Amino acid sequence: MSVYVVYPSGRAGWKLLREGDPDPLHFAEREAAIGYARSLADVNRPSALKVETAHGVVEASWYFDAGRR
User: N or C: which end of the chain has fewer CB within 10 A?
Assistant: First the structure.
């Protein structure tokens, strides 16, 4: 199962990382990062998406079941 994590960048903006990948994608806006992550998670079911704070606390999460679209 793929797990996608959206979290604030240390400098500015937001990052999106698929767990296991070496480099995250960078986004200027939080909603853009979440929207793209939701799209990736939806087409790569089963998958999960987490939005974390700067301290690594999960503030929102979604699960994309393999059997539903």
Answer: C
